[in-house]
Fold these 4 entries.
Entry 1:
Amino acid sequence: MPSLFFAVLSEAKPWIQKTNAKPVHHSGKFRIYKNDSMYIIISGIGKMAMALAVSELAHLLPKEERDKMKVWNLGIAGSNQPNWKVGEFFWIHKITDFATGKDYYPERITKSVFGMETNLTTFDRPIAKTTTANQFQILSETDLQSVSLVDMEGSGFFEAASLYFPLENISIGKVISDHLEGNFCKPETVESILANVMEPLFFEWTNPLPWVTDDPFESKIWPDIWKEVKELRLTETMKHDLKKSLRFYFLRYPNTNIPLPNLEMVPKIKSKSEVKTFVEDWKKQLHV
């Protein structure tokens, strides 16, 4: 059963109409729609709202269901590339949170009717290249050099989703809505833009994940590695981050042995600072 997250109703409306999904009556704060085989969630604008919406859905589901669930975030994005047209769709292979400087790396989509991919920068405010009456955040020429697409939810979605769902189940796709002119998009324009890409994406979204019945990382690779390092007594956060980094490497280089540190050092590591250094050095190898 796949789930699909949007920031606003105008983005979600074509999908709700297509699937005939109905509102779920629950005690939470976010709008959740469901039919017999899928969920559609509307978070509201901003990375915090999106992260909370992901968490709310995750807590409604058992882990066994989450592990088999395809989890997507779709929506509009502003573009800093003048040659890219409004309505063009891109898969996101890197997300940068502008406020924190933190980077995230969604797994790449290898088979899709949409073949273009790029990076996304998530901001806390709407972005523009020039000053307008809307008081958007204005980016300097230096900041713009590293920007491809911009939104306000991507980093929040990915960071939260990666806590509850396997990394390889998570994808983000964005449709260009503007070129940072500093104007708000009308709801009917947003709805039309999302409707134009919906039909080609619908089959890909509803098609089951090919690996849900066989996860060698979970069944073999991670248990074997954990046996070697469990005496480090990692905190739950450190364990989660290390496992996430190991899976990231496995997904990106499936035919390559995962780099391992000198495991003979493990029994000799005693202090918290030594453990932290050991893990951080290992993670650097995994994110090459």
Entry 2:
Amino acid sequence: MSYKMIVLDLDDTLLRDDHSISARTKQSLMEAQEMGVKVVLASGRPTFGMKHIAEELSLAEYGSYILSFNGGKIINCRNLEEVFSSTLTPEAVCDLYHISRREDVFIHTYVGDEIVTETENPYTTIESDLTGLPIRVVDSFTKAVTEPVVKVLMVEAPKKLKDLESKLQAELESEFSVMRSKPYFLEFTEKGVTKGTSLNQLIQLLGIKREEVIAIGDSYNDLAMIEFAGLGVAMGNAPEEIKEIANFVTDTNMNDGVAKVVEEFVLSKPALV
């Protein structure tokens, strides 16, 4: 199979634990782009928190795209125009806020270029560190959200969120897409919006078949695109449930797992340790 697109999750997939891209991985992706293969970034991060990585990989030069907010937005890197955008109404955000109070978990969302929350907490601080967005602590979460937002996160300790994920997926299945992007991040987007559905929209726009797509990820919010792609790849550091769904399991994010996939399936280079 000749692959025409490589879709990459960021944290714990493309990026090492220090949030950098290894030299080997960068080299392999640049070579793939020189061959005409589209390299697409797909993350739960807001668009702002992905732009510097897109710039590092020269995605604008090669006419590629970003899927941000778990697929809630598709951005053309060349002109930064939105190809697709999905949002939650302030009323929906209010409903999620009341559920967060009921379940005693923290909640935050994005308003402009800020992360908005009522309560300082370590998990929102992690999000700020990952995305580079400042935190604004407000007196009233619901009053701070007066316009539609792309997604909302409930954040807490992993054990509590794992149980809550199953509960709220069942309770809210007709209203929201609900998934964890990290053990301590439970994310809510518009019903039916995932990395997989947005990837489907993008390849239709570009005239690429799903069989010609490689999607690589490590977490639960990557499942939809891993299942959708012609070659769905789980990282070596992914949970077992993700590995079981994938067509192929590569090495970890700390041991050039992405590069090894690109070298084997796109560049056709001999496998290196």
Entry 3:
Amino acid sequence: MSDFETIAASENHAAVPGPLGENNAPNQPDNAGKVRSLAGDAWRDLRRSPIFIVSSIVIAFMVFMAAFPTVFTSADPRSCELSRSMAGPSGDAIFGYNLQGCDVFARTVHGASTSIQVGFYSALLAGLIAVVIGMLAGFYGGLLDAILARIIDIVLGIPLLLAAIVALKARSSSSDGYWGQLILVVVVLSIFGWTTAARIVRSSVISAKGQDYVHAARMLGANNGRIMIKHILPNAMAPVIVVMTIALGAFITAEATLSFLGVGLKDPIISWGKDISEATQRVRENAIPLVAPSAFLSLTVLAFIMLGDAVREAFDPRLR
């Protein structure tokens, strides 16, 4: 969470970009005489950042594997035979088989789709909630800001995993299908995971609404809705994207933890957390069923956190 607070602090002190992503301070031309913008400088730094390049490659690989699992394995992850329970690696199964006799590699590959979908949709929905509430609180201020700020404080004081466990324990039988379970987990994680981003949006909006270009738009007759969407929203999106990129990895971890505890995704959905939970029962006999999904999970989460950190540094003027 320290990274989130750093972003919030930097947004308060940094020059706020204009409607087209340019700083309100006089733009500095580069050596070629072209006008430089915050977004342009950030992209130039990102292209030269080894952390950004490596994390992007890892994420691209994981997303491709999640979208096209049959490219990596033709085995059916749900085809299990007890006769090959805990069998070691072989030509047919490079990671061997788990306790139920299922191909560990096939389940690891197919589990990427579920985990990445949960992380992406949770970050998207949480980011949307954060933008709406943060924009309203920061733009209108006064009583509305006070009410929304108290709501943020209340939700922020509830531990994400504890709230998710309680909510998912009360799940109904109507959520037994694939999309029913997925949507339920996404909604629960989003409802309790938007608060930090909302604070950052609120801070960005408060800084942006006092800028000259906002006053100019108001003098030209623009209403509040147009000012928020056309002029202020672009300034709030950059920090939100950074925060939600980091949060995406946290949501993937949260889903794996919930599935590990048995309150998250359930059969027949394949999940890294579920496979890790099952593998811990016989880890002394064969550690590969535990190591394989754990390694893929750790690598994916680390890649998203590294990507978010690289983007944060690129957009933070104090770190230039």
Entry 4:
Amino acid sequence: MRQIMQDQLDARAAAERRRREVTGADGVVRTRAERGHVRLLTATVGRVEISRIAYRSPAVKVGNLHVADAELALPAQLYSRPLQRAVVHEAASGSLRQAAQAVERTTGQRIGTRQLMEICARAAADINAFYAAPPDAAAPHAPAGELLVLSCDATGVNMIPAGLREATRAAAEAQAQGGPQPPSAQLADRERGGRRRMATVTAVYDTAPVVRTAADILPRTAAERETRRREAPAPGSGRSTPRCGTPPPR
């Protein structure tokens, strides 16, 4: 897989066309181009080399601009975005050591502790700004200061023969007549085969946020234990407004 990725990058580098000029986000026009500028990238399949054209300005001292980096959506760091995403997901559910072990087990890539910390810090750099941002403008009807909550659940429901789909009913009748049955260690599983359909219920509603403190989660004294807020308001308790719902199928 690493060799396939490297071959693809080499083919893109050979087919990259030189542009007459390139203007960067800094407004500087770059008219000179040099081929063969190589950078390394550590992906989930291994480390590869990326060769591309570098554009520079003859008059202004600014950094080189690589159009291929933008086309490939390459990060400025050594590690690819899918690899960084895997690191962040693993680190969010455990320690950095566990994250390093999980990433090495699933991708074969070894990442040092300092690099893990840098990846996680960059991923969390905009968290405060994200929560400080105003509500989504796509939902202007939502009350100010309230939360939009989405809930979804699904379960299997035993169906009568008339409620089964045609293919499922035919398979169930064939099993009932002694036809071939799928291998199973339990007779109950064979009897339930072809008898269920999934029922899904979704709900979308607005609710007032409930701010919790440390005393609500880990009370230290008896007074804090008596006054702590145990649960958030449930839908339909007078503090939430349902928007829509999907009833289960027959």
